[in-house]
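Sat 14:20. Reprocessing the chain from the morning session after the first attempt stalled halfway. Input below, unchanged.
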Amino acid sequence: MSTQLPPRPSRLRIGLTGGIGSGKSTVAGLLASHGAAIIDTDAIARRLTLPGGAAIEGIREAFGEAFIDANGALDRDRMRALAFTDPQAKRRLEAILHPLIGIETAREADASNTAVKVFDVPLLVESGRWRAIVDRVLVVDCSEETQVQRVVLRAGWAEDAVRKVIAQQATRAARLACADAVIRNDGLTLDALAAEVDALWTRWCAPE
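Finished this time. Tokens:
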């Protein structure tokens, strides 16, 4: 974990990121147990693409009915397959989703009076804008092999599908370069991971 920290502010906005399968969501839950408000951009994206979600009409217009499932939600598997093979399609989807995610993220953050707000952003590094929005960046890091093993076990994905997602995300080096602190989550038990989060909370968030 990094030891070079800026002065502790009275209110803190933490950007939390990590590659698929890194354990980022588990860390977010541990931070929430300390009282942080979690603004989860992935969860926001999912809500936007549920039946009646604000992104559905834009997706239908850009991609056609084939990408809307029988319930009226985004067909995530079909869209994922397209995004793997067609970078332009991925950019079209992002152009629909990202402004809506930004609006909802700001709404959730403004609605919370909690002193510590954690913005759980898988694409924090890729977006290029979050470093200026948050006070500190926490990266949850692990090896690519650990990422693959976790996602295969957790979600039942094929190994090559996981590696394709990893290839589309920021490199480990790029994430580490923007980090104020790093939790190395290779081979940690849940108790050990919780201890890492506890230590970080004390250093960043507990009253001096």
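DSSP finds ten helices and five strands in the chain.
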